[in-house]
Structure formats: structure tokens, C-alpha cells
Amino acid sequence: MIPARVVPHQRLAVPFAGDEKTILSAFLDRYRETMLWKLDGLSTEQASRRLVPSATTLLGVVKHLAYVERWWYQMNFAADPVSYPWPEDEPDQDIDFRVSPTDTIQGISALYQQEIARSREIVAGASLEDLGKGQHLEPRSLRWIMIHMIEETARHAGHADSRRELTDGAIGQ
Q: Of 15, 16, 11, 17, which is closest to residue 30 (Cα–Cα)?
């Protein structure tokens, strides 16, 4: 067993008051930043190591979240034309978690940051009451999508906490 060690980190601040979109954005950004922080200081090999019976890895979770950002904000809310690096009819529901031999921390982190930047642009230009224009699901409001993304990202941040501690003992404050 690897001994736990606290890794100091200044988390992103969230406002205690303000308009709803600002507060939702701040909480989501805090969890997004946490996901990237969990990769900090690891090698791609460490971040790609399977530590639980499922195929999920630290790097795979960040990769998954990048595609979740694309799915909800671009495809389902803005109805932007998007693509994915796997066949459209791929039956593997966990394909976006899989780490390929060419994936690196730098590459996946850049992908995630790129998807986050596009998500922020979409949010900035919309109202929380606006409904998604995508054709894949029943339309959801931007508010619903943002709350769902906080839920999704926070849940995976918890997974990342455990996987990082199992990798090298690093824990938050």
C-alpha cells in the first residue's frame, strides 16, 4: 500500500452570491480544474494504469469528460456538427474512456481544455432558460445541462481522487 501524502493545491474560488449562471459556471469550472489537477505530476503511464476492475483510468476519465462536454454543449444544446474518433455505430458504451497507445496527458488535457473553452462560449451566448437545438434527445434547458455537467464532473472528480491516491498516494487538502 502506498502511503498517503497531502499535495497542497489552491482550488478555484466560487462566489457566495451572484447570478445563477455565474455560480453554476464557477462550480463547474472548479470541478473541471480538479480533473486536470489530478493528472498533474503523473506520467502518461501512471495516468493510464488500470487500478479497478473496470477499464476506467485517470486519463480515461478526463478523456470521457472532454467528449461529454462536446456531447452536451455542442451536439445537444448548440446543434453544432461534431465528430468523434470512433465509428458512429460503435457498440462499446465505454469507448470514450479507453486510452489509446497514442494518448498522452498533454494531448488529453489539451482536448479537455479545448472542449471546455467551446462550452464556455456556448454558455456565454445563451440564457439558462434556452432549450437545446440538437436532434438526439428531448430538448433540455441550458440550466439542466449545466447542473448535469456539475453532477457528472463532480462524480468523476471523486473517481479521480481515489485513482490518484492509489497511483502515488497523493490526496487533496
A: 11
